[in-house]
Amino acid sequence: MNNWNDWIEAQPQVVPMLVESIKKQRLAHAYLFDGQAGSGTMELAILLSKSFMCQEKQGANPCLTCLDCTRIDSGNHPDLHKIAPDGQSIKREQVDYLQKEFSYRGVESRQKVYIVSDADKMTGTAANTLLKFLEEPQGETLAILLTEQVENVLPTIRSRAQHIRFHPPLKEEIVKQLMENGIDQKHSSFLAELTENKEAALRLTEDDWSFQARGVVLQLMHELYTRPDQAIITLAEKWLPLMKERIHQEMGLEMMTLWLRDLLYIRVGKQGELVYSDFYESYKELSLSTSQRLITLSLAKVMEAKSQLSANVAVQLVMERLLFTIQEG
Ligand SMILES: [Zn+2]
């Protein structure tokens, strides 16, 4: 992931814009990269730093072999500084230190970059100190602030940096990260579909709720299409007791959506995309005996159930209605 093209798929809006600015030498003094964990904010901040400092770049891409590039790669470029929270917050002393470092090297060096991770975690005084820095950029200085919670970044800081919103991480990227955390493939792809990022997915693995829910939803949906009377019992005895909280109920419905989507995927020969891939054998038969119209209709009904839930209709009523309308086709 060492050149801009490698990132185009993950960040289709961000990459062309930055590439244009690099080529036209119109980079802003400060950027605010706003994106969830796994979306590549730090990786692109480093790549942008290289493109900014490299003297041998080809188009927008850094050469990767010059002294600037190799020093950035090994993490010891004297003109690239990184700040991250020290404990809970980024403190004023950290910003002071950064400014001092920069002024020492004021004459001899050319471009300077600083990257501030979790910019929303700056204390008030740290933010104010940084603000002065942003207002009086010295020479060719590039500031890249990263945040996962842009609403917590001080408005004064936000207004002085060009705000760049990152696309959420690609599912494959989340799956990869989850597997690196020791979660098997089957659950990784399931969790990645249910959540927005790795952190949220990992939180779901702190207890076995999601694993139980997965099993219950698989059972419920299969019964709904093969033994509908049993599905009503499974709803009462298993689904409802497990889905006590609203967030669980919404996720339960989302799991049903994924199940139905799988069924559609099989009909159109996209087996590789299945979320419940371990269930393929029993899916195969079902997808042959269920019309595409019925599956699409069921998907629409699940959507309806979701909006009824958000309108505070009682969950039992919502779910019973849902099962009955799907059964009736
Ligand atoms: Zn270079």
From TrEMBL:
Catalytic activity: DNA(n) + a 2'-deoxyribonucleoside 5'-triphosphate = DNA(n+1) + diphosphate
Coiled-coil parts of chain: none
Enzyme class of the recorded protein, top EC level: transferase
Record's keyword terms, sorted: DNA replication, DNA-directed DNA polymerase, Nucleotidyltransferase, Transferase
Gene3D superfamilies, per database record: P-loop containing nucleotide triphosphate hydrolases
Single annotated GO MF: DNA-directed DNA polymerase activity
Source taxon at top rank: Bacteria
InterPro entries: DNA_pol_HolB, DNA_pol_III_delta_C, DNA_Rep/Repair_Clamp_Loader, P-loop_NTPase
Transmembrane stretches, start-end: none
Segments forming domain DNA polymerase III delta subunit C-terminal: 244-326
Enzyme Commission number: 2.7.7.7
Protein name: DNA polymerase III subunit delta'
Organism: Shouchella hunanensis
